Amino acid sequence: MKSIIVPIDFSEQSENALKVAASLAKKSNAELIVLHMLELSPAIMSESGYIAQEQVVHLIKIGEKRFNDFLDKPYLKDVNIVPVIKHYKVFHEVNDVAEKHNADLIVMGSHGTDGLKEIFIGSNTERVVRSSDVPVLVIKKEHEEFSVERFVFACAFKEESIPAIKKAIEIAKLFDAELFPVYINTPGDEFLSTEDAYSRISNFLDVAKLGLQVEIYNDYTVEKGVLNYSDSITADMIGIPTHGRRGLTHFFMGSIGEDVANHANIPVITFKI
């Protein structure tokens, strides 16, 4: 891993993400791109804006000073930091920065009144997940020592998820974690017999040229299955594929993504397919 991006807004959640990102940067000897987007709209940056240009410059200087002060942390010592400030809060710019710096990972803190609510629904994190071409790691709480030993990756085991599971394998190697691929079997239209489920998984692994042991876990809904299976093996992180801008895939349709992200007490990492 060569480059990691962490967007910050000076909140407790973004500092939690910054600590994890710094830990990963040290471990992989990667540069850490710390991104802050100022709360300025394009209107006030123009000559016809309703705030004088002198005031705009003043606001920018205040934001830059606060940003620099925020980065004055002991845990950032010996980390190769590249500070980036954007004047507007336009979330596709995170993807632009990731492309410019050839980033391998984006780390973000969860937001909401309790740090868990509305992580993906109408939130900053959701916007980044939808537009990001690189994996997004969502951090829910402070981690003094961030480590992952047991990493669950849940998907429908269709060919479109092959790039995602290969990236999950790379992430597992980075963390020196054991990967637990799982297919969640649910009643209703998506139900598969054991034979059919193993047939789908086998075909998937053959096409992907992967030698993995995949668990089939039965539950009433996909989100409950992901969470319950993760709890049953005391997982440290959950991985799920997404469709990015085209909307969220099976695991992020309706309330599934909201439930997995909001109710998981462990980090969640998304992979665009």
TrEMBL record:
Indicate the segments forming the UspA domain, all copies: 1-140, 150-271
UniProt feature coiled coil, ranges: none
| CDD domains in the cross-refs | USP-like
Write out the similarity annotation: Belongs to the universal stress protein A family.
Q: Which PANTHER family match?
A: STRESS RESPONSE PROTEIN NHAX, UNIVERSAL STRESS PROTEIN UP12
**What protein does this entry describe?**
Universal stress protein
Q: Name the species this protein comes from.
A: Flagellimonas allohymeniacidonis
